[in-house]
Amino acid sequence: MPFPVEPLPTDIEALRAIIAAQAAELAAAKAGLVTKTLEVEKLTVQLARLRRMQFGRSSEKIAQAIEQLELALEELEAEAATDGLADDPAASPPPSTAKPKAGRRRLPAHLPRREVLHAPDNACPSCGGAMRKVGGDVTEVLDYTPARFAVIRHVRPALSCRCCQTMAQAPMPSLPIERGLPSAGLLAQVLIAKYCDHLPLYRQSVIYARDGVELERALMADWVGKAAALMAPLAEAVGQHALAGSVLHADDTPVPVLDPGRGKTKTGRLWVYLRDERPHAGPAPSAVLYRYTPDRRGEHPQTELAGFRGHLHADGYAGFDALYEAKNDLPAAVAEVACMGPCAPENLRRSRRHRLAPGRGRPETDCAALRHRARGDRAATRRAAARPPSQGTARDR
Questions:
Q1: 123 by DSSP, 3-state: which?
Q2: Quick one: CA dihedral 254, 273, 276, 237, positive or negative?
C-alpha cells in the first residue's frame, strides 16, 4: 500500500529548503555508497593478492586471513544489496515490468526443471473477446530442496512348496555395514559432511535431530571407522596410481590433533602427493594421495616415495634430500624440481648447495631451466596433442 504523503507548503523558500535537505541526504547516501564500493574493491584486491601469495611456510596464516577477508566482503556486499532497495515499495517497478539484470549467469543445464504456468484468463479483460497466444516470458529461479531422511524397507517373502515343503527366500542384499543402520547414501552424507564440509559429528547429530532422527555421535564415529576400513583398498589403488607417474608434486601441512590427557592439541602432519598430467597433455587421470603422520620426520616421505622414479616438485624441506642422492654408483632415481609456484629464494639457494650429479656441469638454479628440465620429456606429447589430425601421407593413400 502507498505511504501517506504530507501536503507540501506553498511558500517558495520552504520548498527550496526541502529540496536542499533532500539533495543533502541524497549526496550523503551517494557518498556512503561510494565508500562501501571502494571498500569492497579494496577487499577484493587484497583477496587476490593473498591468493597469489598462498605458498610457503606461512600459507596456513594466509588462508586464515583470506577467510576473514571473505567474511568481511560478504557483510559489505549484503549491506550494499540492502541499501540498494527502495524505501518506498511503490517506487520499484512491478515484477512483470522490471528490467532483468544484464549479464545474469545462466543456470546449469543439468539441473532438473519444474515449470509453473501463470496463464491469464482466456477472456479479454477489456471487451470479453477470445485471447490468443502471441509470445511469453520465461523466468528461471534457483530452488533448493533440503535433504531429508527416508526408510528403505527390504521385504523378503518366505515361500514354501506345497508338494515337498521346501522353503525359499531371497538373500539379503549387501549393505556397507553388515547388520548396520545406515544405507550407502547416508554413510556418504556423513563422510562428506565431516571431511569435505568440515562438520564434526556432534554438529551433524544436532542437524539430524531437527528432522526427528536421533543419531548419536558415538554411533556415527563407529560408522566412520568401518567406512574407512571398507574403502582402504580403494585408497591404496588410488595411491598406487598417483605414485606411478613420472612427475609428482609433494607437500605437507600441519594438522592439530587432539591429545587426550594433556588438555590441548598436538601437531601432526598431512602429506599430499599429486599426479596431474593435464599441463603437458598426459593421458592419465589426475589423482591425489593423502597420508597422515604424527610428526614431520624425513623418513615418512622417503618411505612413501621409495619406489617412485621421475621428477619431484617439492619445497626446500630437508626430508626430501635423501631421495635426490645417487646410491651405489647409480644416478638418483628422483630428480629434484624446486617449487614452481613462488620460486622461493630458499629453494634456489638449496639448488645451488645441492651436490652435482655425475656428469653434470653446474646446478640448474634458474626457474625457467628447472621447468624445462621437468617438462622436457613431455614436449613431444604436448606437440602431438596440439597438432591437428593428419590427413595421411602419399604412401598411406
A1: strand
A2: negative
Non-local (6+) Cβ contacts of 41 within 8 A are: none
Query: Apex CA 91: angle with CA 90 and CA 95, to 5°?
Result: 75
Contact in structure between 250 and 277 (CB atoms under 8 Å) = no
What is the rounded CA–CA span in Å between residue 111 and residue 144?
11
- Residues whose CB is less than 8 angstroms from the CB of residue 268 and which lie 6 or more positions away in sequence, other chains included: 254, 255, 256, 257, 292, 293, 294, 295
Contacts of 362 (CB under 8 A, 6+ apart): 356
| pTM, entire model | 0.60
Contacts of 280 (CB under 8 A, 6+ apart): 247, 375, 378, 379, 381, 382
Q: Which residues pair with 271 in a beta bridge?
A: 252, 291
Burial class (CB in 10 A: 0-12, 13-18, 19+), 273: buried
pLDDT digits 0-9 by tens, 27-64: 887 777 777 777 777 777 777 776 666 554 455 566 66
CA distances from 359 to 23, 355, 363 (A): 80, 12, 11
Query: pLDDT tens digits, residue range 251-296?
Result: 999 988 877 777 788 899 999 999 998 887 888 999 999 999 999 9
